[in-house]
Amino acid sequence: MNHINHYLRGALMILAVILVTACGSNEEQVEAKPEPVHIESGDECHVCGMVIEGFPGPKGEVITEKDQHVRKFCSTRDMFAWMLQPENVNRDHTLYVHDMAQTEWDSPDDTALIDARMAFYVVGSERDGAMGPTLASFANESGAVAFKKEYGGQVLKYGDVTMEHINTEMPMGDMHDMGEGDSSTMEY
């Protein structure tokens, strides 16, 4: 009888290990990050509403943590402007940006999308994105440093980018000079 109890306990322990292992595998699948979604013709920027395709510079993508809704952005600047809002800043959204060391500036390829939280960014460079200045994104610091040497700016990690960086990057355009020029040359 003791041998049977011993075998039953052993069988129950093996079954428990199998169940715990199986549960762990399912848990890992649930926690796996969603893959990036390619930018399609006609996709619009979640912030400004511009059609994303055809504009230069790195783009951004956010997949929301709860409903897995995909939000696409025409530039990394617009993605950060959205992510740094108080209602988004502490969320565990999945973020992707283009690694500009792997793709062309004028037409970024979505096969170069990388984890935005692990990327390095160059702010204040001479290169423009969809609506002017943007943050050049890179998978590694050496790519960001090489870009900075060629185009200027400052290298930052994801967590170091602030709204001040985003707002300083905003172009003023011609509106800044309105009213200072000769009114005879202004069109009404």
From the structure above, extract its key features.
188 residues, alpha+beta, 2 domains, 4-stranded antiparallel β-sheet, 4 helices, 29% helix, globular
Shape call? globular
Gap from first CA to last CA: 101 Å
The overall average pLDDT, rounded, is 82
Main sheet properties: 4 strands, antiparallel
Tell me the Rg in angstroms: 24 Å
Uncertain stretches of 5 or more adjacent residues: 25-29, 170-188
Number of discrete domains: 2
Order of helices and strands: HEEHEEEEEEHEH
Verbal overview:
With 188 residues, the chain is of the alpha+beta class. The chain has two domains: 1-32; 60-172, no CATH class. It has helices at residues 2-31, 76-83, 141-151, 163-168, and strands at residues 60-63, 70-73, 94-98, 113-115, 120-123, 128-129, 132-133, 136-138, 154-157. The relative contact order is 0.12.
